[in-house]
Structures are given as structure tokens and as C-alpha cells.
Amino acid sequence: MDKLKILLTVCCSFLLIFPQTFFSRTKTLPEKSAQNQTADLLIVGGTVVTMDKDRRVIEDGAIAVRGGEIIRVGKRAELTKNIRAKQTIDAQGKKIIPGLVNAHTHIPMSLFRGIADDLDLQEWLTKFIFPAEAKNVTEDFVRVGTRLGLAEMIRGGTTTYADMYYFEDAVADETFKAGVRGVLGETIIQFPVPDNKTPADSLIYTEKYINKWKNNALIIPALAPHAPYTLSTEDLLKVKNLADKLNATVLIHVAETRTEVNDIIKQYGARPVEYLEKIGFLNDRVIAAHTVHVNDAEIDILKRRGVGAAHCPQSNMKLASGVAPVPAMLKKDFPIGLGTDGAASNNDLSMWEEMDTAAKLHKVFSGDPKVLSAFEAFEMATIRGARALHLEKLIGSIETGKRADIVIVDADELSQTPFYNIYSSLVYATKAHHVRHVIINGKVIMRDRRLLTLNENAIKKDANLYRQKIINSLLEN
Ligand SMILES: [Zn+2]
Questions:
Q1: In what order do the strands lie in the sheet with 83-90?
Q2: Of 192, 276, 292, 477, which one is least surrounded by beta carbons within 10 A?
Q3: How remote is the CA of residue 364 from the centroid of ligand 1, in Å?
Q4: Which residues are CB-neighbours of 306 under 8 A, at least 6 positions away?
């Protein structure tokens, strides 16, 4: 016992005298002021909206990037004095923001954009989407739809997205080739789907898929159990066990509609989040999409378990699913981001529209215009969205040590003139077509509105070929 005491005393004294030895690895390194640094890319001029912890906005700023990482953020005058770069982007007169984070979508469903509108979720899913998927979804379909969605997202300044679909290995391949960051989940569901006939087959596919991509710089491979109402308890637990074994992220739809809540109560005697908690499904690798019908106690359960959430206002409005209690979640500092959901229920992948809608929907629903500000909506599309995806150490803000996912937007178009407030201008007046340059992981993938990793004309041609195939397949019945 005495020996242990002595050892503890020695350790504690060491920690008191040399705390940096132990803690320096977890601390953000101070920005270097070294002379003559070199960088791969220097962005100069413009207003840098950092979304760092002090939410700094730097006028006439600059950002230096090396090896895909942000190495300096500051004033242009300061950085250009001692940094030499291989490549420079002039952002004068523009806004420089963290890449937008789309926290929930089904990217290949871009090919079903407009196939069936103005229906509720159950009718839309069972009469149109599930049959259309059964007849049309192949690996090639997924690749074509993914490229279409990627092109649209890059044009709109989205640099990271969370996805749930089939043939997710092909989604990952296309995403990586396009240079976009993704948390990409293979869907696991009770009935036979295009790539796997049973949940057991899906789990085999998913394990292989995750092992293949787990060390990739851009792709975070994940499991995507569809929802509590489309998988048995036994299968949900098998998903959880595999996720635990692989230390992998889990994407799931939760409490999207009132019907789901009523069905789960009938079947399990608990509300969806209570049920997931009861079976031990929830942890800090889970991302719950929608969370429309969650009560205060369920929000607390999700928060306690470290679950992230994705709010999809436009999809929820279009399918009349309801309004998620986002203001209450923000009061609890909940890690909730914004998602477009698939293009079939939105019908676009614009995060600018999602921010604008989120800020307005909650005002009209609560009768209080102060309930969700433009600033809070912008946070949800950037740093809070990164927290929702459990990626806040990597992305979501422009600061030293983070990956260089940076978007430069025009700020002098008619709809943005005159300018008074940065977040108001970004959320209420800036649209996807104002995005000029997109950088992901330090690489420029759109320059002056020209996509550098995807062929837009070929994408449109391929998508239109599928349009005809999909129409024919639905006429077969
Ligand atoms: Zn969804």
C-alpha cells in the first residue's frame, strides 16, 4: 500500500511539474510564427468565417494549407509576409467558409428526383420508392446517381456528406475519386434489397466494405441499419455488435413519423429512442437521422449517450412528417446538423436551402422569430454538423490543425447587396450558385465554378438514360 502511495505521489508531482508532457498531444498546437514557411496552397483576401471556438471572422484574411491540413489562419498581411506557396487563390471580396456538412442523404436517389411527390412517407416509400428501387438499383445505377449527387453537392459547397444506401462500396469509390469526404453507410434492412437478400448477407458485405475503406483519408465507412421499424431487435443487436467490433459509425433513421412512434410503442411498449436505449443500441458512434418525434426525455437519452442527429427540415416538410424539436435540442447544446435527405424527397441537395428553411420553419412553427437564428443555422451546417457526424476534430471550422475543407463564395451579387451582417447574408441571401471555389482535404476540386474531378455533361447524359429506364420499369405493372 505504501509503495502505491509513493508511486502515486511521484506521478502526481511529475504531472504538476511537467503537465505538457502528458497533455500536449491532445492540445491544439499554437500557430507558428516561423519565418519563411512553405505551403501547398494559400488563400488570400476575403472574409474568413472561421467557426472556430471564438467564432472569429477575419477581414482581409488568409489561410495556408499544407499536406491537406490548415497550417495557418490569420490576416493576409501577416501570412503573405513569411509564407511561400505553390498555389494561390485570390479571394478578395469573397466569403471564405468551412465546407458545408450534409448530415443525411441517400445520394444515388438523385436519379429518383421528382419520381413521386406530394405523398406521405409510407405511401411514397411503399408505392413508389421501394418498387422503383427493386426494379432499377444496380451497382451501375448507384455509380451514376452518386456522380450526379456529388456534382450537385460540390457546386453547392458541400464538402462532407453522410449517406445511407445500397452498394455503398461503389458510393465510396465514386466519392473518393471525386475527392469528396463522406461518412458512407451500407443499408441493412429486413426485406431483400438490390445488393443483399437478407440482413445476414448485408452484414457480411458491410464487414468487408468497412475493412476495405477504414484507413482512407476521405471515406469513413459505416453501417446503416435502416430504422427501428424495418429491422428486428435481434438484427439491430447484430448490427451493433459488428459496429462495436469494427469501432465503426452507425447511421439510422429514428422517430421520423408519428406512425413509426405508434408502431414501435405497440410492438415494444416504448417510444423509438426509449426502445433503442433499452436494447443497448445507443452510443457515441451513432448518428440518428430526423428525430422528429422525440420528447424531452428522449433528447436527454440521446445527449447522454453521445448520439449525433441530423435535422432534415425540407424532407420533413415535404413528406409532412412533422417538425423536429430543434430549438429544445440547441438549448441543450445537442450535436445536431442539417441534412437534405435524398433528392427524391427534397428535391435538391442544397445545404443553403436547408439552412434557410431550418431558420424559418422553427420561427413559424413556434411563433417566435428568435427561436433559431441565422448564426445557429450556419453552425448546424458547419461545426455542429461536424459534431453530429463525430468528426469535429477533423472538420467543421477553419482552424490550424484541421483538414482543409474550405469553400469560397461570391458576395457581391444583386441578391447579396447591400451587405450588413455576415450570417444573415450567408443563410438568407446566399445560394448554391454563388459558390465559386471548393477545396477538400487541401485539394481544389472546383475552381471558378468548373468541376475538376467530374464530367458534368457525361453525368447529365447518363442520368437521363436512367430516367427512361426508370419510367419503363414503373409502366411494367
Ligand atoms: Zn433518409
A1: 69-75, 61-66, 37-44, 83-90
A2: 477
A3: 24
A4: 283, 284
Rounded to the nearest angstrom, the distance between the alpha carbon of 345 and the centre of ligand 1 is 9
Give distance in angstroms: CA of 453 to centre of ligand 1.
27
Closest CA to 312 of 430, 149, 162, 131: 162
Ligand 1 centre to CA of 354 (Å) is 15
Residue 424 cell numbers, joined: 444573415
CA distance 76 to 90: 11
CA distance 139 to 57: 44
* Residue-wise pLDDT tens digits, 164-198: 999 999 999 999 999 999 999 999 999 999 999 99
For ligand 1, the distance from its centroid to the CA atom of residue 166, given in whole angstroms, is: 13
278 contacts: CB under 8 Å, gap ≥ 6:
268, 270
Q: Is pLDDT of 25 > 60?
A: no
96 C-alpha to ligand 1 centroid (Å): 30
CA of 379 to the centre of ligand 1 (A): 21
Which positions ≥6 away from 267 have C-beta within 8 Å?
Answer: none
82 C-alpha vs ligand 1 centroid, how far in Å? 47
DSSP class of residue 88 equals E
Contact 361, 354 (CB under 8 A): no
**What cell was used for 376?**
445557429
Helices and strands, number each (H, E), in the chain: 19, 19
Q: CA 150 to CA 174: how far, in whole Å?
A: 9
**Total-model pTM:** 0.92
Q: Cell match 465503426: residue?
A: 248
CB neighbour class for 174 (10 Å; exposed up to 12, middle 13-18, buried from 19): buried
Rounded distance from Cα 426 to ligand 1 centre (Å): 26
